[in-house]
Amino acid sequence: MNLELVEIIVSFFSGLPHWLATIFISTLPIFELRGAIPVAIGVYHINPLKAYLLAVAGNALPVIPLLLYLGPVSNFLRRYRYWDRFFEWLFTRAHHTHSESFERYGTIALALFVAVPLPVTGAWTGCAAAFVLGIRFRHALAAIMTGILIAGIIVTTITVGTDTILSSI
Length: 169
Fold this sequence. Notes:
Number of strands: 0
Helix content: over 70%
Radius of gyration: 17 Å
Structural class: mainly alpha
Distance between the termini: 21 Å
Number of domains: 2
Shape: globular
Number of helices: 9
């Protein structure tokens, strides 16, 4: 993660208690818990278990509103020709390139997609993928929440391991 960006985020939330800043950082689409956990442990010195729980809670906050409102927002935007073309292209492309794997592996594929702690994966993108691929709300919610929990474990483990290695040098 870019250190300058981390400094900007940390200074932006500097007036908040560290636990609340951790929650807010994990709600942001660029950072999610992949950014919040390292900041909580490395910068705020929050206990790893508490950092994990706060970041998971924060990352889960936008999931239900996203799953519920991506459809109505896209329907509203589709009234305009530009957005209608965009969504038509998006849906056609997504169904053409990804629907077979999602049909075969179902919500497990969505959970694993969200769980992989890499850029452009995570809860926000998982919600968009669930919407575009037409995955039902309760299946999408379960898969995304599972992915968030797994991603949190991975990121916390990597952060604690890296912190331990760096402190022993």
